[in-house]
Design a protein that fits this description.
With 353 residues, the protein is an alpha+beta fold. The protein is 46% helix and 12% strand. It has helices at 31-42, 76-86, 120-128, 135-138, 149-153, 156-159, 166-170, 172-176, 183-194, 201-208, 223-227, 234-248, 255-270, 275-282, 290-305, 319-344; strands spanning 2-9, 17-24, 61-64, 67-70, 100-104, 111-113, 116-117, 145-147, 349-352.
Length: 353
């Protein structure tokens, strides 16, 4: 079948341009094999990264028709089928006579050349979360580290990360906040929190919960989960770190923790959120934070002027039902935590020194 490839070409500091290449390929041909053919047969100046060709190294991550993916994993047939599902008809995807696949470099990183990006920030943000077992725990012991099978199983999902950069490329939070370490780093961070051999869990959690560079900077857009080729589900791991923080820290630790705890408290009280109490309890910290209290003034005045300030609060008619549902979920979470703790305390088996 004839397929048209539109590839973004660019050198550092120059604007991108689209270049078109036509290939006769089989539906099962991978995007990486197509790029190889373009480079070998049509244009030797085309630049892209590759290595294993087997979804192991993560080198060939790029944007294929608008979403980050591994070129060695995606093939022509499945990609064209995906495009057809996204549009009402195959013809709607392009004005070209040929089916078209557009390839661009990953996002959130500067382009070096064509499809090759500078991943320095990606690695720096990974290093920022200390993605290795703590120094004290890594000292050579007199015997092996011991872990139960359940403890080891907790590391499996995050251990599948191949650091391809797909989640980092699509991260909305990273796009607007250059300090946010990214979903890849926080997925690795949870692996350290979950690792029973690490001796600095408390210190790690405090670090991961600081400001908006850690877990509270995540906008929960779900893109990281949707593009991850290894089903690491970075957003799920970020959520687990948040849950650890909420269980270990009180509402005075940070505004982010207070925000979530007050939200649950208010919903339990009234079935939905009383916005007046929410601002006072979170931003002004129950009137303890005078600067926060003063900051609410301009917003309150604008809301009053627009007729949007709630002068009264009507609890939900189903407030008792809402409260019972929240308490039931909290009870189930507590029970799950006790079960997990019991499993961890079972006789451990050696898994490496």
């Amino acid at each position: 079948m004839q397929v048209r490839f539109k590839i973004f070409r660019q050198t550092e500091g120059s604007p991108p341009r689209l270049q078109t290449y036509d290939l006769d390929v089989e539906p099962g041909t991978t995007i990486l094999d197509c790029l190889n053919r373009i480079k070998w047969e049509q244009d030797g100046t085309l630049a892209f990264r590759k290595n294993c060709r087997n979804t192991i190294c993560g080198s060939c991550s790029m944007r294929i028709n608008g979403r980050s993916a591994l070129a060695c994993k995606e093939n022509v047939g499945s990609e064209l089928a995906r495009l057809q599902r996204l549009h009402s008809s195959a013809a709607a995807q392009t004005t070209d006579a040929l089916p078209t696949i557009t390839i661009a470099p990953m996002g959130n990183m500067p382009v070096i050349k064509d499809l090759v990006v500078d991943m320095a920030s990606f690695w720096e943000h990974l290093e920022a979360v200390d993605p290795y077992v703590s120094t004290g725990a890594r000292q050579v012991p007199e015997r092996e580290f011991l872990q139960s099978p359940e403890e080891r199983d907790r590391l499996n999902q995050t251990g599948n990360c191949i650091l391809c950069g797909a989640c980092y490329s699509e991260c909305n939070a990273r796009e607007v906040n250059p300090d946010f370490v990214g979903p890849h780093a926080l997925a690795k961070a949870y692996r350290m929190v979950a690792d029973s051999r690490d001796a600095t869990t408390t210190e790690r959690l405090e670090k991961y919960g600081e400001g908006t560079q850690g877990v509270w900077g995540c906008t929960r857009c779900y893109y990281c989960n949707s593009v991850c080729p290894m089903e690491v589900a970075p957003l799920d791991q970020i959520t687990k770190i948040k849950q650890e923080l909420l269980e270990r820290q009180d509402d005075q630790q940070s505004r982010a923790v207070r925000h979530r705890k007050v939200l649950v408290e208010l919903v339990k009280e009234g079935g939905w959120i009383d916005e007046r109490k929410f601002g006072l309890r979170v931003v002004s910290n129950h009137l303890r934070d005078l600067r926060g209290l003063v900051s609410l003034g301009p917003l309150g005045l604008r809301m009053l002027a627009k007729g949007k300030f709630p002068l009264s609060f009507e609890p939900s008619e189903a407030v008792e039902e809402v409260r019972s549902l929240i308490e039931a979920v909290q009870q189930l979470e507590a029970e799950a935590g006790r079960i997990e703790a019991t499993k961890v305390q079972e006789s451990p088996v050696p898994v490496g020194g």
